[in-house]
Every structure is written in structure tokens, then in C-alpha cells.
């Protein structure tokens, strides 16, 4: 049964897919939110965390922050 995604979640997934951040190619959590209006950034951070929890995104902790990529094989 497919899960309904919010508009913010769709925007995040579209940006990551457009830039080919899938699987091993990842980007900083801050770079995902760049380019969106500043008044939406709080909602985008929440949407990003929900996408990680639901398995759509892979997170990789690094010494300088969290790296994000689309999960190529979601469960």
C-alpha cells in the first residue's frame, strides 16, 4: 500500500533525483534544503527526517554532518 507523501517530501525527493543523489552518491543535509525559500526550511527539515524514518532516504553520518541519498532498494 503506497504511502501518501507531503508536498515538501516530494520536493526533496525531486531535488535529489534531479541531481542523481541515489545510492552511494550523497550530499549534505544542508545542501538538500538550500535553494528553497527560508520560510519553508523548518518544514523541509521535518519532512527530511520523516523520509529517512520511512526508508525512502539513506543517511550516512560523517564527522562534518549527516549525508543524504535516495535509497535505491526501499523495503
Percent of residues in β-strands: 15-25%
Oligomer: single chain
Number of helices: 3
* Relative helix content: 40-55%
The low-confidence runs, each spanning 5 or more residues with pLDDT under 50, are none
Polypeptide structure, described:
This protein has 75 residues and is an alpha+beta fold. The protein has one domain. Helices cover 41% and strands 19% of the residues. The protein has helices at 7-18, 29-33, 41-54, and strands spanning 27-28, 57-62, 65-70. A 3-stranded antiparallel beta sheet has the order 1-3-2. The radius of gyration is 12 Å and the shape is globular. The mean pLDDT is 92.
Q: What's this, in brief?
A:
The chain has helices at about 5-20, 30-35, 40-55, and strands at about 25-30, 55-60, 65-70. The chain has about 80 residues and is α+β, with helices and mostly antiparallel strands.
Which structural traits does this protein have?
single chain, 75 residues, alpha+beta, 3-stranded antiparallel β-sheet, 3 helices, 3 strands, globular
Please describe the topology of this protein:
Elements: H1 7-18, E1 27-28, H2 29-33, H3 41-54, E2 57-62, E3 65-70
Antiparallel strand pairs: 1-3, 2-3
